[in-house]
Write a structure and sequence with these properties.
This is PknH-like extracellular domain-containing protein. InterPro entries: PknH-like_Extracell, PknH-like_Extracell_sf. This protein has three helices and two strands; from the N terminus they run ααββα. The radius of gyration is 14 Å and the shape is globular. The protein is about 30% helix and about 25% strand. The chain is α+β, with helices and mostly antiparallel strands.
Length: about 70
C-alpha cells in the first residue's frame, strides 16, 4: 500500500485513520517504530471488493495506548 497522493483529499483530515488506517500521516509524530499493511482484492469483480489489514508497532504498550486515546478524542 502507498500513502495517498496530493490529488486525494478528505474534507476532514482527522478522519483518515478511520477511513484508511495504515497511512503514514495518521501515525506521524506518534512514536511508532514499524508498520505492515496488506491489501487484498477480488480480481475482476463488480463491484470491486477490497480488504485491508495491518499492524502498527510501538516501542511500548504505553505509547500505543496513548496513541489510541489521542485518536479517540478526535
Amino acid at each position: 500500500m502507498t500513502d495517498p497522493g496530493p490529488e486525494n483529499s478528505l474534507s476532514t483530515e482527522q478522519c483518515l485513520g478511520a477511513l484508511i488506517g495504515y497511512q503514514t500521516r495518521t501515525y506521524k509524530s506518534s512514536g511508532y517504530t514499524g508498520m505492515l499493511a496488506q491489501l487484498m482484492q477480488k480480481p475482476r469483480s463488480t463491484p470491486g471488493y477490497v480488504v485491508v489489514q495491518g499492524a502498527v508497532i510501538f516501542a511500548s504498550a504505553d505509547q500505543a495506548v496513548g496513541f489510541v486515546a489521542t485518536q479517540a478524542d478526535q
